[in-house]
Amino acid sequence: MNSLNYAVKILKKAGLRCTPGRIEIVSILLDSEHPLSQEEITAELSRNGLDRVTVYRALEAFLKVGIVHRVETGDRLWRYALCACGSRKHCHPHFVCRECGRVECLTGVKLPTFTEPKPGYKVEEQETYLKGICPECAEP
Amino acid sequence: MNSLNYAVKILKKAGLRCTPGRIEIVSILLDSEHPLSQEEITAELSRNGLDRVTVYRALEAFLKVGIVHRVETGDRLWRYALCACGSRKHCHPHFVCRECGRVECLTGVKLPTFTEPKPGYKVEEQETYLKGICPECAEP
DNA sequence: ACAGTAAACGCAAATTTGTTGCGTTTATAT
DNA sequence: ATATAAACGCAACAAATTTGCGTTTACTGT
Fold it and tell me: Domain with A20 in it: what CATH number?
């Protein structure tokens, strides 16, 4: 199934409307290897793209119904990635390159789970960021 | 030793000037159980406090010489805590309460260290945020 | 197919958080 | 005491995101 059709399916399942704009956003996220910011998404939209605000609102709606997760890596940009696990909890750590700023989901890396790291402190969500240098930026 | 005297010591050791403003900022951080934002610090300053910009610049200077570490927990606020370990790397995870927004350093909790989670991806710094509900906010 | 309705949209303006420029004050080494 | 670089205050700026509001559009139920 191509990503446009799959995007429709995702939106329908989430109970959101299948507008051309939202379908395209989901499809862009589907095709991306890493979480994207509003600006990156807007840049990939077809010529007569969407308003910034519309993209922000769509992403917020996606977050609310749990089809994306949101990461903040220290550069004060929200980035969004489709969330296979279907919850807002981050099931994997994220790698952030200090050179190019790209964020990568380390889906293969398992994390220890903390439920109550200190008496009375109940954990609902867990995020780990590994910051460093990615293979492309490490090139000599 | 009271926190004002200790603050002077910290600043001297870091090679920074002991101005009344910076001494007070360090002393506020010393007395705090958790990382503080510029706004929280400014609120705790004595009546004729400091300009926002001055606080930001002081915190930036502290970060540069490594006497504080900075956390960003997803609400787009920088928070700063004195750093016993003397490095900018975060040696412990942080707990973030979804109700009151307060951030706590989990100094007792050990984390597994990743050096190369994926071939070619070199980790320099590692941050873990545990988000949930703190004992005070969990009260019925 | 068609009308009604809530969701989605676009545009303008506002908000929030942090930064820069620049002239003045002050801690500290000499 | 004095020179000087660090620290400061004020005003203006900047980037990312949010809010308000009127218009358009996808979908539900005839």
Answer: 1.10.10.10
- Rounded to the nearest angstrom, the minimum Cα separation between A43 and chain B is 23
Total domains present in chain A: 1
Mean pLDDT of A89-101: 81
Q: Is B75 exposed, middle or buried (0-12, 13-18, 19+ CB in 10 A)?
A: exposed
Q: Do A121 and B98 touch (CB under 8 A)?
A: no
Determine the pLDDT at residue A84.
63
pLDDT at A88 over 50: no
CB-based contact B113:B126 (threshold 8 Å): yes
Distance from CA of B60 to the nearest CA of A (A): 15
Domain assignment of residue A63, given as a range: 3-138
Distance, CA of B126 to CA of B22 (rounded, Å): 28
Q: What is the pLDDT of residue B89?
A: 57
